[in-house]
Design brief:
Blueprint: E1 46-49, E2 56-58, E3 68-70, E4 73-74, H1 98-102, E5 103-106, H2 110-118, E6 128-130, H3 141-144, H4 146-156, E7 161-165, H5 174-182, E8 186-191, H6 197-203, H7 210-222, E9 227-234, H8 243-253, E10 257-262, H9 269-280, H10 285-295, H11 314-329
Parallel strand pairs: 1-5, 3-6, 6-7, 7-8, 8-9, 9-10
Antiparallel strand pairs: 2-3, 4-5
Helix pairs in contact: 2-4, 7-8, 8-11
């Protein structure tokens, strides 16, 4: 078994360690293959359907801005090395490493399940966030169209929602997003972590280029869809110096708000991220991890409520002050009104008796 059993070019993770829930572990070792030898087969992507009883996920975290979310996919082919959803793949008996970005699952009945949940007499509308886990516009959405089907259902019910992505594929659904945004039923967020094409390709190997994401901000804005730019994660010593430039370019493209999240390294992500740093950015690896630990009380990660999204200490404080100043400078600090919950209606089904008044 080689240290890298597959050709991992175009992938984020550099290994495929066993799930933390498995009783047997796989250890990589050097079996003598050299760079001049033939490459191992490229790692292929598989996409399989998964059964779900419900589709609306709920959380009570005080650190996120929503309590209800829709996640059409598990795993993500974008392969972002820092993705906080990676550890969830262990619950499937798979690795948060390469498995997370190559062994993917989709919910074929998501739209049907959503319609059933929204139609319940006990349902009370609240803003639903699409993409709280993995990207709803990752490459397989181009053909599977699960995210689009969910937005179509929300549109029929006049149900407010937000959606986040780092894919320009969101532009395909402008015909759905724009009319709902006009009625204050939809807003979107585009994640832009770097303007450096080489760094973006290294961190997020199969996501859209920074230019494509900025173009998505511009075209959505022109269509009347309010866009927030997310500079997330902020990685000290790696992309934090780009904070002001990203917000300036996003504002120029028409963004109306901005947010940030400091790098989080829970569970397996800390090992995957350190491995990636040593492979792709060895000259900065030690400094980046030192700065991260200075923001996390001397550890790679501190899950404490209230600070896990921003970190603590002088570096984290400076990061927050810089971000607030840049938001104000580029006109991205205006307060947002909430989306309109009053328009929610369960549409009549064929055969339903119409109201007399």
């Amino acid at each position: 078994m080689s240290a890298l059993p597959h050709n991992t070019r175009g992938r984020g993770a550099r290994s495929n360690a066993t799930s933390r829930f498995e009783s047997h572990a796989r250890d990589a070792f050097d079996d003598g293959w050299a760079p001049e030898d033939d490459e191992a087969p490229k790692l292929s992507t598989t996409v399989l359907p998964m059964k779900s009883k419900t589709v609306i996920a709920r959380n009570d975290s005080p650190d996120v801005g929503f309590t209800a979310s829709l996640n059409p996919y598990r795993g993500c082919e974008h392969g972002c090395i820092y993705c906080y959803a990676r550890p969830a793949h262990a619950f499937l008996g798979l690795s948060p490493g390469l498995d997370f970005e190559s062994r993917l699952f989709f919910k074929p009945e998501a739209a049907k399940l959503l319609e059933a949940e929204l139609s319940k007499k006990t349902y009370k509308p609240e803003v639903i966030h699409i993409g709280g886990d993995t990207d709803p516009y990752q490459p397989q959405e181009r053909t599977l169209r699960i995210t689009r089907s969910l937005i179509e259902v929300l549109g029929r019910y006049n149900h407010p929602f937000s959606v986040i992505s780092k894919s320009a594929l969101m532009l395909r659904d402008i015909d759905l997003l724009a009319p709902m945004a006009e009625r204050n039923l939809a807003r979107v967020a585009i994640s832009i972590t770097s303007l450096d094409r080489r760094l973006a390709r290294s961190m997020e190997p199969r996501a859209a280029t920074p230019e494509k994401r900025l173009e998505a901000v511009r075209r959505l804005t022109e269509a009347g869809v309010p866009v927030i730019v997310m500079f997330a994660p902020v990685i000290p010593g790696l992309n934090d110096h780009e904070m002001e430039a990203v917000l300036e370019r996003a504002a120029d493209a028409g963004a109306v708000g901005a947010g940030y999240v400091a790098l989080r390294l829970p569970l397996e992500i800390k090992d995957l991220f350190r491995e990636w740093l040593q492979t792709d950015h060895p000259d900065r690896a030690s400094r980046v991890m030192s700065l991260v630990r200075q923001m996390r009380g001397g550890k790679d990660y501190d899950p404490q409520w209230g600070s896990r999204m921003t970190g603590q200490g002088p570096i984290a404080d400076l990061m927050g002050k810089r971000f607030a100043a840049a938001k104000a400078r580029y006109g991205l600090a205006a307060r947002w009104d909430g989306l309109d919950l009053s328009q929610f209606r369960v549409p009549p089904k064929a055969g339903d008796q119409l109201a007399l008044f």
